[in-house]
Design brief:
By secondary structure, the protein is mainly α. It has 7 helices and 4 strands, in the order αααααββαββα. It has one domain (about 10-185): Orthogonal Bundle (Jann2411-like fold). The strands form 2 sheets. It has a two-stranded antiparallel sheet. The chain has a two-stranded antiparallel ribbon with strand order 3-4.
Length: about 180
Amino acid sequence: MTGQVPIGGYADTGLFVAAELVNRVAGDADLSDLREILAVDPPSLAALEARHAKGFAALAADLRAIFDACHLDDIDAAAAGLNGLLADHPARPHLAKDPDGTWRMHHHSADAELLPMWASICAEALARLISEGGGHRIGTCERPGCGQVFIDVSKNGSRRFCSVMCQNRVKAAAFRRRRSTTIDA
């Protein structure tokens, strides 16, 4: 491997859930958004109740601060935020056998409460990415007014936008500015 941080698969679910929480759960968490986000884990989906919404909104705010710090290349601040989350929601790893017979490492016991479990999963995944030199892969869209966060899974780790749509809008605006400048000249 040439300095690349492999991202994807079961072990990185916490990365993508963290980004989805930040992007979709702001202020008052909508239960339908939480259902879509937690659908990656059927037992979590089954355990989700309206009482969890406020806690997930608070977790999303904590995670936003971590994404923002990474966007500003302030990995020290991101690490401090993650250390706080990990202290409040420590992982308790154990092996669990899936129904298909596959053994998987879980960050929590089977009877863990939903919110502390996901706080631990998200914080551990982000902390692992940073510890492996991938802090630059924790991004915030550079299109003015967007603010969506993402995990950069590109080969060279140079992603700057949350979507192709945002990238195209920025490129089109730059083209219009250049064209306007040459017409005025």
